[in-house]
Amino acid sequence: MKKEWKKRTKLVHGGTRRSQYGEVSEAIFLTQGFVYDSAEAAEARFLQAGEDEFIYARYGNPTVAMFEDRIAALEGTEAAFATASGMAAVSGALMSMLKAGDHVVSARALFGSCLYVLEEILTRYGVEVTFVDGTDLDAWRAAVRADTKVVFFETIANPTLEVVDVQTVAEIAHGVGAKVVVDNVFATPVFSRAVEQGADVVVYSATKHIDGQGRALGGVILGTEEYIRKTVEPYMKHTGGSMSPFTAWVMLKGLETIDLRVRAQADNAQAVAEALQGHQALDRVIYPGHASHAQFELVKRQMGTGGTVIALDIKGGQAAAFRFLNALEIVVISNNLGDAKSIATHPATTTHQRLSDEQKDALGITPGLIRLSVGIEDAEDLVADVMQALEAVTQQ
Ligand SMILES: *Cc1c(COP(=O)(O)O)cnc(C)c1O
């Protein structure tokens, strides 16, 4: 892979390690271990493994290394560590950096499992966590302290699609010497410029757009060579959250087409969001790429697109939301996102069911809220499907 190659070229060819057979499609090295030529060679490799020398799949594997190199090339970081799931990446990035007595500032609007890691697990080990409204820059300024080691946020919050200003929050964090860890799932690696905007560590659930076809769980932690090798790798390889070679192969093939898929999804999302504006069955249409979004200017600056997810607030609460879901013919009811298939979710009764009513209110998770992850189907068909389902809501 050449440094000057453009991203789309890197996504097809980056990281490839071709075996002696000259295969076109990347090989799945479905092996946990590796054979050494001699006892001396084994000793030498344990002492210091070279760039393309492997010891044990929990530490590294050629197929996994291909995925890591390819996603690092896309994100523009020096290194990556692939993990068994998005949550292994989030928890690994944070746990490997923090110790008892450290302080963390986090946005409050988080994916449920991220909230659990910050609120329930880190605090159990003596890390203090302060939660703030991620869109309120003064709240970030007030919350950081000299002992703040990490700030954490999702660049676009799930499911209400509020956007955090990466550059400004990074400046605030760096002002006190804290590292910025960004869960960038909703921004997607295609539209992310998080590193140039100041993020130190970027984390993805590869389960979402990177696979993009609903097959495998995975995740990745991206950062400097120093951080990945000295901080993340020792933690991950000894605690066991590494990615399997088969999953890495699925994700590697996902990266080949991610740029095409995610751009098509974002175009479709834009079309659906525009078609729905002002619809009489809706209280709100939230889409970061539409001028009606409260942070539209920031979105344009930060991502240049609204991404692949829309939130709809349907008039008539849960009953109306359920009628809408049950009337959909193309869009499936599920809780993944970033998939080639369009997926609708009712957060209040599924992904965010665990939250109290007060917490749901605070996060804007109303009974009528639907999260719509837009896929790569034909835009006209998608608009027609959503329209006929809204029709079914109002006909009741
Ligand atoms: C899905 C998701 C995760 C967790 O990813 P898994 O692969 O399901 O473990 C973390 N953060 C965000 C924002 C997500 O959407």
From TrEMBL:
GO terms for cellular component: cytoplasm. GO terms for molecular function: carbon-sulfur lyase activity; pyridoxal phosphate binding; transferase activity, transferring alkyl or aryl (other than methyl) groups. The modification N6-(pyridoxal phosphate)lysine is found at residue 208. It is an enzyme of class 2 (transferase). Coiled coil: none annotated. Its EC number is 2.5.1.-. This is O-succinylhomoserine sulfhydrylase. It comes from Roseovarius atlanticus. The keyword Amino-acid biosynthesis applies. The keyword Cell cycle does not apply. GO terms for biological process: 'de novo' L-methionine biosynthetic process; homocysteine biosynthetic process; transsulfuration. Pathway: Amino-acid biosynthesis; L-methionine biosynthesis via de novo pathway; L-homocysteine from O-succinyl-L-homoserine: step 1/1. It catalyses: O-succinyl-L-homoserine + hydrogen sulfide = L-homocysteine + succinate. InterPro entries: Cys/Met-Metab_PyrdxlP-dep_enz, O-succ-hSer_sulfhydrylase, PyrdxlP-dep_Trfase, PyrdxlP-dep_Trfase_major, PyrdxlP-dep_Trfase_small. CDD domains: CGS_like (cd00614). Catalyzes the formation of L-homocysteine from O-succinyl-L-homoserine (OSHS) and hydrogen sulfide. Its cofactor is pyridoxal 5'-phosphate. Belongs to the trans-sulfuration enzymes family. MetZ subfamily. Keywords: Amino-acid biosynthesis, Methionine biosynthesis, Pyridoxal phosphate, Transferase. Homotetramer. Pfam families: Cys_Met_Meta_PP.
